[in-house]
Every structure is written in C-alpha cells, then in structure tokens.
Amino acid sequence: MTVGSLLAADLAIAVLTAAGWLGAGAASAARRRRLALALAAVGLLATVVRAATITALARAGWWFAAEKVLIAAPLSFAAVVVAGSRLLRPPRDVRAVAVPLLFAGYAGSAALLVTVLHGYPASAGAGLLAVAGVLAATAVSWRVLNARPSRTVSRVAVAVAVAALVTGTGLFAAPGAAPAVPHDHEYAEAARTAAEPTRRFTLTAGTATVSVSGRNVAAWAFNGQVPGPELTATVGDVLEVTLRNRDIARGVTLHWHGYDVPNSQDGVPDVTQAAVLPGQEFVYRFRADQAGTYWYHTHAVSDIGVRRGLYGVLVVRPAPVTGVDVTVPVHTLDGLPLPAPRTEPVQAGVPVRLRLINTDSTTHRYALAGTPFRVAAIDGYDLRGPTPLVDTAVLIPAGGRYDLEFPAPATPVALFVDGRAVYSTGPVSAETRGWPALDPLTYGAGSPAPWSRFDKEFTLVLDRGLDLRGLLPRYAHTVNGAADPDIPPQVVRRGDVVRFTIVNRSLVVHPWHLHGHHVLVLSRNGKPASGSPLWWDSFDVRPGDVWEVAFRADNPGVWANHCHNLAHAEAGMRLHLMYS
Ligand code: C2O
Ligand code: CU
Predict the structure, then answer these.
(1) Above 50 in pLDDT, residue 171?
(2) Atom of ligand 1 at shortest distance to CA of 257?
(3) What beta strand segments (E) does 213-291 contain?
(4) Which of 45, 335, 506, 573 is deepest in the core (most CB within 10 A)?
C-alpha cells in the first residue's frame, strides 16, 4: 500500500470509528440494545484497525503520524478502555452504558478532527484542547442522560480546558512569525539588460469574448485571444514585452513560468512589482539565453486570471526551426478543452518536435500514438540519453512542459490528451488510456549528482489545516502548519547549495513550483533518481510522497515558492525564498 492510499484508508477508518461509537451511544440512550451493541462492535473494530493504519503510517514515515500517534491513538485507546470494558458484560438496561459509549464517540471524533483540522506539526495545545472537548461533551451528555451532574467530570473538563487555553495559544500559530517580504530594488536596476531589444512584443490584457468549439466564452485575454500570442525568440535575442492592462480591474502581471529571469522581471505582484492596473503598463526585458519551452501567465489573482485565459507560450529556440516544431498548450477554459484539434500531414523523415505544455492547475496525461518517440526535454532542460518510447503516456504536472521528438513516420501519428486527439498528421485510431505512464526518474542516462553536501536544508510539509489568523477562519492549504502570508520565508545566501525535502501529508496532489531556479531531483520516497538528471521547475508531489530536490542559489532576489494548483496557492500554499 502506498502512503497516499494509507492516508485515505486511515481517514475513512477514523470516520467509521467516530460514527460507530457515536451511533452506539445514541442507540443505547434510546434503549435499542441490539443496534447499540452492533454499532459498538463497529466502533471497536474500526479502532483496532486504525491502530494498524497509524502504525503502518508511522513506519512508512514519521511525518504523517505524529499527531495520530500522540493525540488520536491515546484518545482511541481511552475509548476502548472505557467503552469496551463495559461491553464485555453489557448490563440488562443498555442505557447504563450510554455515557461510556458516547465518551468513546467524542474521543473518536476528536481524534478525527485533530487529524483533519490541525495536522502538522502536532502540539500539546491541540491535544489538550481535544481532550477538553471530549470531557466537556461527556459531561453534558451525562447531565442530559442521568439528570445527575457529575462534578468530577465537569471539574476535570474545566481544568483541562484552561490548560489547553494556556498552552493552546500555540495551537494555530506559525512556527515563527513571518516578516513582510521586502521589496528588493537593489537588483531591479542591475537586472535590466542594457542591450538593445531585438524582439519586441506588446500584450494588452482585457476582457474578451472568445469562441471555443463553437461556443462563446467570456474570458480574460491577451490581445483578445486565448491563449495569448506565442512569443518566440532565438538564443541571443533580447526580449522586450510591454504589458498593458485595458480593463482587468484586479490587475495583471507577466510571470515567465520556468524561465529564470532576473528577479525584477519575475512578475509577482507585491513582491517584484506592483500589479498593473487598468490604464497602466509595465515593460519586461530579459535576454533569451535559455533555450526551451516555457509559458507566461498573469500572477495577479493568479487562480482566476490564468483560468480565465491570461496565459500564452514562450519558446526560445537554439537556432531557426528546421523540421516541424509545434507547441501544444493545454488548457481548460470554462470547462472546454484547448487547443482545438489540428491535423497537418508531415512528410516521412522530417524531424518533429512537439512542445507539450500544461497550463491547467491539475495533471494531464499525454499519449503519442503511431510512432516511437523520445522525451527530449522537460521544463526547458534537455534530458541526457533519452531512449525511444512506444505506447507510453507521460503525465505532465500543472505548469510543466515536455518536449517529444521523433522523425515523422510514413504513417500518421496522433497526440492524445486525456484521450482526446489534439494534434495529428492524419487519421489514427488508438486506445491510449491503458498505456503505462513514464517514470522520468528512471528514464535516460544517469550521472552523479553535482553535490553531496548542502549549505541549507528546508523541509516543507504540505497539508491542510484550519487558519484562524484572518478575519474569517478558512480551511487553508498549509506549509509546515502555516498559511500564506504567515509562512516564514526561506533565507539563503548567494552561492548556497540548498536542499528541499517536500512531504505531502494531504490527500491531494500538489504540483510544486519554485520561481527563478530549476531544482535537481535527488530522490522520491527514498529512492534516488537514477535516470537523466532532471532539472525541473514544476513537479507533482502526490499524497504521501517525500521528494528531495536541490539547487544552487544563483539568482538573487525574493522568489515565490508555491503550489501550482493555483487555487491552493491562493488558499495559503505559497511562501518565499529570499537571499540575505
Ligand atoms: Cu506559473 Cu508562480 O507560477
Ligand atoms: Cu496544491
């Protein structure tokens, strides 16, 4: 069982435990003896099974298990001791065991709530608050059922509650307050290339109606089109892109996803520039010195802005195109898939490069049918010794890019995205859904990692949790128990070799994305990457995954470091890397 499925199973069993005990308590209060005993058996059994899932999780990686072992397990144990012991010799009047059964139910619920709402890292405050809640609820039930107040239980509940409040102030606190991210203008000027621009573009953001598969969609668009114009350059060019905002009230910026620009050109509002408001403009300039497939998108209210259409392709080619070179930026606009399918015959023997780009917030599955192919590059970096693949799919994370290469065969080929043909050279019928997916960590020719020692190490535990710091409480996506803007920045010095350990404790995929740098994948779930070196800017950290990646801090500034499921980023899963 993978850690991800263990986590899901554990959650399901925790729900069953709480429901079983609570139901048993209610049934016994209603004197439904059989039902009460049956539900109690469910609660008891589920509790025992949960002991197994918690143990398995603890053994698979302590990260996920701390609060379960320290808080949930003792609560469950108490439930079994209190309620289980009464069940060995159930009294004739089953109502007599209602309170112990309810106690077990509250304990199970508290154990569940701690897992779902509090999470990582476990704290004494959370544990005490949970215990206080259980005792308080038990005391109330006792009064209701027996009409006879139990002073002891009430007093203990109050005492624990007070203790919880005293220590529990740390319950929802971030591990260290986050200083405001400074505007670092020191680099801003140096970053502007003095050289004359050789490629000039203007992108005007505005609301627009665009037609997708015959339907009119209200979109936000660059130059009235979705995706925006394709920006291309050849290595050695200097790009100058003027961004104008016609009427996007919440502002726009341009972020060059995967392209490691100087910090002042990175397009992150309130970090590297102010958002460009209606009527304003901002000029970006940088050198085209990194050949590869990239994309650009707004970073202001990024979740909505990108989803509505403020994105486009950026391709830097090493030399003028020979052969066929096609970009396939996949997107979902108002529920409709882009791009529109396109068919064009290609002469046999002509080299073809397909640049696959995922501009959505979730993973897409791409399958090329009709020819062997190689994955030539990922995230703008060429792979080392890629071997031919046949009938193999590739999973591209949100924000990620894969370049596929092959000589055109005499027969047609077709590229399918999630089963839909988007590009073909002729009619192909293929069922690609059953194909295995490529594991890039074992693909291509390995080479020893350039570093074995790290100057700085950071751990990022990706999770969900209750965030009570704003005006309204929210169920945030968190990093190390805190949500943006309360996640402490990661401070590095120029030249440091930095290692990130990224752990996904939640039940959903988090496509991780660091701005301004490419990270080298070291290992996933304890297994070292053995294929071609992978220099990535976007990678899927699945539930239960533990990734180790490293990079050299060689691009000074303040950089966003966030989940590229942009809804998650907006809901807290975003922090900053900054140079001291
Ligand atoms: Cu494409 Cu900050 O992201
Ligand atoms: Cu996420």
Answers:
(1) no
(2) 1
(3) 215-222, 231-234, 238-245, 255-257, 281-287
(4) 573
